[in-house]
Amino acid sequence: MTVTDEDSIQDGPGEVPSLRNPAFKDWVERSVTELQRLHGWTKAEVARRGGLSRQQVNRWRGIGGPQSLPEAETLIVFCRSLDLDLAEPYRILGWDAATPTAGGRRPAPHPVADHELRMKMQRVRFLLEDPYLDDDDRALLEHMMDTLIVQLEVRVARRREAVERDGTRSAGG
């Protein structure tokens, strides 16, 4: 993401640039406002707890430039981090992935998710090789990756245990 000033924000990773969807914008507005009301959070705090920057949430809302729409993976992280139901934004965006339910189902992978994940991993490798990445940024990146890996390992282990216990596997999971 490149931020040149408050009013000039370019599309960043995890977004589809410059597409308009007023219903998605309204959903983001309602969700952010409700989380602010329930928890007393600022908009920046809602974004941070959702795994996004304030600028990225603003782009979803069409503030400070053209509206950008999320990639599936980015929306999933945002919703799961904030305990928001994915069904409504998926419906609004017209995505035909398996609609998540309270029963633990998750959307089918995005058709190019594996490729996108490989590209994101490549970006991390390039970043780690950048001579301008200082020790503090390197430590931050390492901490964030460690945290993410541990969280995913716990989720996968729980899912594996449930499958072994119940003998079934939820759709897409």
Short description:
The chain has 173 residues and is mainly α.
Overall description:
This protein is mostly helical and 173 residues long. The protein has 2 domains: 3-93, lambda repressor-like DNA-binding domains (434 Repressor (Amino-terminal Domain)), CATH 1.10.260; 113-166. The protein has 7 helices and 4 strands, in the order βββαααβαααα. It has helices spanning 22-39, 43-49, 54-60, 72-81, 87-93, 113-129, 135-166; strands at 3-5, 8-9, 15-16, 69-70. The longest helix has 32 residues, at 135-166. It starts with a strand and ends in a 7-residue tail after the last helix. The relative contact order is 0.10.
Q: What is the tally of beta strands?
A: 4
Unreliable runs, pLDDT <50, ≥5 residues? 1-14, 98-112
In whole angstroms, the N-to-C terminal distance is 30 Å
CATH architecture of the largest domain: Orthogonal Bundle
State the fourth-level CATH superfamily of the largest domain: lambda repressor-like DNA-binding domains
Overall average residue pLDDT: 75
**From the helix content, strand content and strand pairing, which structural class follows?**
mainly alpha
- Look up the CATH topology of the largest domain: 434 Repressor (Amino-terminal Domain)
Protein name: Helix-turn-helix transcriptional regulator
